[in-house]
């Protein structure tokens, strides 16, 4: 059985997506590409000024101290988590309208930001193990299944053939769990700084090996269904006093939200936004 990435959505969301597709052919083409190949690339999603500002805000955290602790994180890579507690410009990435238009179509309303981390792949780094992003926590739902998350990987340096560009396996979001990618099925994502790779959380991918002389910086915001546990514990990473600086949209994505209709996410019987000072 083949699952469309959107097969898990309710009728209202599906109708909304159909209306948005009709109004926005570019969005429609991106959604078609994700349905078929599992990913799309948004070029020039950030201007060179935004790329530079992001690098400037990340620089204090990229001092060679937060190196990966295993082969998955990458022992020659730096990983900076909890980015919304460290670099407020990341909010513009996390809420980028072209990315959220895709996430809106693929996940249920009130979806959450599951992770937002920077990955600086240094020269000498080897390929990461292949993985999908939407199966954390001993997932018991085998593939093929609907995507439970959507991930973006934003290039802050040009992704080249040698510096550790992300590698994807087109179509693998529709595979069963036991299918292993063969060499000829792997595609490098070559894209200029400021571009965003957006993909179904069920797509097989990995960070590539960096055989160049320069590092490759990326930020990966990942979104998940509202009823899944976030990979990063976002409301502890960004407590109410810090959430105060952000828009309602960012706060909602962090988890200062409830899943409506219903009450998943309440705190002491009330909407969690009441904990944000001066709200
Ligand atoms: O750094 C990359 O290109 C990919 C990283 C990744 O997929 C991950 O850590 O989940």
TrEMBL record:
Keywords, in A-Z order: Iron, Metal-binding
GO molecular function, one term: iron ion binding
Domain of life of the source: Bacteria
PANTHER family referenced in this protein's UniProt entry, alphabetically: PHYTANOYL-COA DIOXYGENASE DOMAIN CONTAINING 1 (PTHR20883), PHYTANOYL-COA DIOXYGENASE DOMAIN-CONTAINING PROTEIN 1 (PTHR20883:SF15)
Protein name as annotated: Phytanoyl-CoA dioxygenase
Taxonomic source organism: marine gamma proteobacterium HTCC2143
